[in-house]
Amino acid sequence: MAKPVSLQLYRAVMTALSPLLPLYLGRRAKAGKEDSTRLDERFAHYHHAPHSSGERIWLHGVSVGEVSAALVLAQELKPHFPQAHFIITTGTVTAAQMVMNTKGDLPLTHHYAPFDAPHIMSRFFTYHKPDFGVIFESDFWPVMMTSAHEHNIPLFLASTQMSLQSADNWQKAPSLAQAVFAPVRACFTHDKIQADIFKRFGVSHIEAVGSLKLPRYEPRKTDFANALSQAAKTRPILLGASTHEGEEEQLLALSDNLTAKGCDHLLIIAPRHPDRADKVAEMIPRAKRRSLRQLPDAYDNAYLCDSLGDMPSLYQASDIIWLGASFSGKGGHNPLEAASYGKIVICGPSQFKNQNEYDQLMAQDVCHQISDPSLGASFIMSILADKDRQKEIAKAGKAYAKQATKRAANVADKIADIMKGTKE
């Protein structure tokens, strides 16, 4: 089938840009945004033989949230494909670190995602020869997806979503959208609104199952969580979870308002990207830092958790979760993990990346939207004084999160059924 003109033009542009890739990647490596020892992977050049036995299952997601969903789904796919080896590709250094730190007993290989040029993506698929691939969230690269189709690699979309603006942009190039999305075997998306978007692009099998960015619940209270609780003593802990640029200032204003109203508390800030930690530290110069192996004590009012992998401990210890990306127009991080620990979630007005989760949790009084720090302080103080309401919130949040954990198994069952049907 002839490629649409829009796809031909895109392929030509990406091919023309590929000679500039070493310079671009070199600059990113100097800025700490690339692993300088693994730049070859961006060209699909590898130094070890690929895994040769069993199914090869490719999972792709750009950053930390997508990786968490990918690892959860991989665990659920494993019983269906007991000899499988997983190939996980990501776009960020943080996500790469998370894969290696949290993979557990999964048999997997991690690579950085190749540049979206025809010769590079063809080399990637020729090298790995995956039996099928799963793309998470919204990292839809035209060459990557059409090249998979050309190599007869079945593609699935999981935990998938697309902003209305992106959907409008895709609709401006309908032939390109059809080439990219129509061959997808199945799309497991967040809600009915998202399902309607993918129907426009010719995807035939679509199910609204919710986000697969599921809680990484740790039932045993960690030593780090105990240390934070001990430092707070009787004070409540306010956690700024996965904050982005511009949000720390709002959080600090909220904290100041709480203090002014007589609510003594311990503020913990955990920036989404640890490479921003030095900038955040300038805002709270007296705060101790997790990256320096420091712990707060009873005399500290603020603490900077600038590390990876500590979010379960932070959720365990905290009383109020101020959730990042919802106050900076970035769509809001998934509130499910905070809810799974039975904690009160404070969010801003930007929720489009996880709208269904926010709507459901707000309806159950678990999540609360605020926009003004002074109003937020009043709300927090009222809810801290209402122990019965806190118990009801904890019960509702845990119940909702427990139900959500069944999503990945459901998606894995459906993918396995489709793949087994393909082979029969």
Q: Major beta sheet, specifics?
A: 7 strands, parallel
Number of helices in the DSSP assignment: 18
Poorly predicted parts: none
The CATH architecture of the largest domain comes to 3-Layer(aba) Sandwich
Radius of gyration: 22 Å
SSE-based structural type: alpha/beta
Mean pLDDT: 93
Name of the level-1 CATH class of the largest domain:
Alpha Beta
CATH homologous superfamily placement of the largest domain: 3-Deoxy-D-manno-octulosonic-acid transferase, N-terminal domain
Number of domains: 2
Inertia-based shape? globular
CATH topology of the largest domain: Rossmann fold
Through-space gap between termini:
26 Å
Q: Would you report the number of β strands? A: 14
- Percent range for β-strand residues: 5-15%
Share of residues in helices: 40-55%
| Major sheet strand order | 3-2-1-4-5-6-7
Description:
With 424 residues, the protein is an alpha/beta fold. It folds into two domains: 21-214 and 406-423, Rossmann fold (3-Layer(aba) Sandwich), CATH 3.40.50.11720; 223-404, Glycogen Phosphorylase B (Rossmann fold). It is 45% helix and 15% strand. The chain is built from 18 helices and 14 strands. The chain has helices at residues 5-17, 21-30, 64-77, 93-102, 118-128, 142-150, 164-171, 174-181, 192-200, 223-232, 247-260, 277-283, 311-317, 336-340, 355-363, 373-384, 387-404, 407-423, and strands at 56-60, 85-90, 108-112, 132-136, 155-160, 186-189, 206-208, 237-243, 266-271, 288-289, 302-304, 320-323, 344-347, 367-369. The protein has a seven-stranded parallel β-sheet, sandwiched between helices. A seven-stranded parallel β-sheet has the order 10-11-9-8-12-13-14, with helices on both faces. Strand 8 (237-243), helix 11 and strand 9 (266-271) form a beta-alpha-beta unit. Helix 11 crosses helix 16 (373-384). The model has no long low-confidence stretch (mean pLDDT 93).
